[in-house]
UniProtKB/TrEMBL annotation:
Molecular function (Gene Ontology), one example: isochorismate synthase activity
Reaction(s) this enzyme catalyzes, per UniProt: chorismate = isochorismate
Organism: Actinophytocola oryzae
UniProt-listed SUPFAM superfamilies: ADC synthase
Name this protein carries in UniProt: isochorismate synthase
Record family assignment: Belongs to the isochorismate synthase family.
């Protein structure tokens, strides 16, 4: 090895940084500690620890430029973090002290995470159904083409939540998905967003970009025949294809100015998690300007109509009017960007926000949303969002009757 390359290699090793295509260290779940950043994908996992610097510029261009500049001289050439859904909240991008990659993670032995002493649905099931009916009226009046409405479950925990065990359970349940934990800004105590999303917002590898929007869902069923029938019903649903098309069009439109070529399949395919079936479209493109980073692209795409709606400003206003909570970083974007501009960003859904105050019990607020279209039936959206809660509930070992 050239002596200069050897030096660089030593510096990177000292900082704990290994490129995804080189090091396969494993143990990233075992080494997760509160405050760390973890993002796993079917291909690899990244664990980052410490906060050397935090970048919070609200302007997407400025944010990407600052991060790129900081990464040039950084001993750990990767930035990690989250973009909020809330457009009044600041992005939270961290230059960590260490970053370490592993290959795909194995399934872990199942372990308990912690019991809840109380569960408060916000809004109630009936309240959510009313909000959906209200959104359907707006959609039929033509002000909106699509809006995503969410509900939450606020769990007060009997004991501190073991996030490492929760992550291991999520990884084991969602091998085809993206499991994550992100430390969020908090005035006191600790806030962590933890979840396992099936949806990749964007990846950039060199000049190749890939986006994989999901929209249009139906619950899985324990009976294999009914389960297959559900998948087929989703593939045949005009309402769900329209709901999906809105997202694919928005993602393609947002990527188009950055790309010299874009491949958008005409029809979606069917994918599944353990809880739901989804319509999925994998969009690929070639960048015009190789200087555009994955963080810049993620900011340009986010929020897609998979989590917000179309038109964006009318959808945001409807969400603010109808959802009785602030989303914060739920439905945000979570990911990493390296010094070459490569990176991977996922949609921050199928998650819970863990709040650990300095004194008093921890709370875990789970979020679940559904795309609402003019043809939506409120009770079906209640059932769909109940199914989506199961990703977290199952991993926490909680059996709640949400019917
Ligand atoms: C907003 C969520 O899911 C989105 C992603 C995939 C499918 C969706 C749907 O079919 O409604 C949602 O748009 C959520 O899980 O909280």
């Amino acid at each position: 090895m050239h002596p200069r390359a050897l030096n660089v290699f030593k510096i990177l090793r000292r900082a704990g940084f290994h490129r995804p295509d080189r090091g396969h260290d494993g143990q990233v779940i075992e080494d997760y500690r509160p405050g760390s950043f973890l993002l796993t994908s079917p291909r690899r996992a990244l664990l980052a620890t410490g906060e050397r610097q935090v970048v919070t510029d609200p302007d997407p261009d400025e944010l990407a430029k600052r991060v790129t500049k900081l990464l040039v001289d950084s001993p750990v050439p990767v930035a990690v973090g989250a973009l909020p859904f809330d457009d009044q909240a600041a992005p939270h991008i961290v230059l960590p002290d260490t970053a370490r990659w592993s290959g795909p993670l194995p399934a872990y032995p199942r372990a308990p995470v912690g019991a809840a002493v109380s569960v408060e649905p916000v809004p109630s099931r009936a309240g959510y159904a009313r909000a959906v009916a209200c959104a359907v009226d707006s959609l039929r009046a033509g002000e909106l083409r699509k809006v995503v409405l969410a509900r939450s479950l606020r769990l007060t925990m009997a004991a501190p939540v073991d996030v490492r065990t929760l992550l291991a359970n999520l990884v084991s349940d969602n091998a085809a998905g993206f499991t994550y934990a992100v430390d969020l800004p908090a005035t006191t105590g600790r806030r962590t967003l933890v979840g396992a999303t099936p949806e990749m917002l964007l990846s950039r590898t060199g000049t190749t970009v890939v986006a994989n929007p999901l929209a249009g869902s139906i619950p899985r069923d324990q009976d294999p025949d009914k389960d297959r029938a559900n998948g087929e019903a989703l593939l045949a649903s005009v309402k769900d294809h329209e709901e999906h098309r809105v997202v694919v069009e928005a993602v393609a439109d947002a990527l188009a100015p950055f790309c010299r070529s874009l491949d958008v399949p005409e029809k979606p395919s069917l994918i599944s998690t353990t809880a739901v079936w989804h319509l999925s479209t994998r969009i690929t493109g070639e960048l015009l300007d190789p200087g555009v980073t994955s963080l810049r692209l993620a900011s340009a795409l986010h929020p897609t109509p998979a989590v917000c709606g179309t038109p964006v400003s009318a959808a945001r206003a409807t969400i603010t009017a109808l959802e009785p909570f602030g989303r914060g970083f739920y439905a945000g974007a979570i990911g990493w960007c390296d010094a070459d501009g490569d990176g991977e960003w996922v949609v921050g859904i199928r998650c819970g926000e863990l709040v650990e105050p300095v004194t008093g019990p921890s709370t875990m607020t789970l979020y679940s949303g559904a795309g609402i279209m003019p043809a939506s039936v409120p009770d079906l959206e209640v059932t769909e969002t109940s199914a989506k809660f199961q990703t977290l509930l199952r991993a926490m070992g909680l059996h709640l009757d949400l019917t």
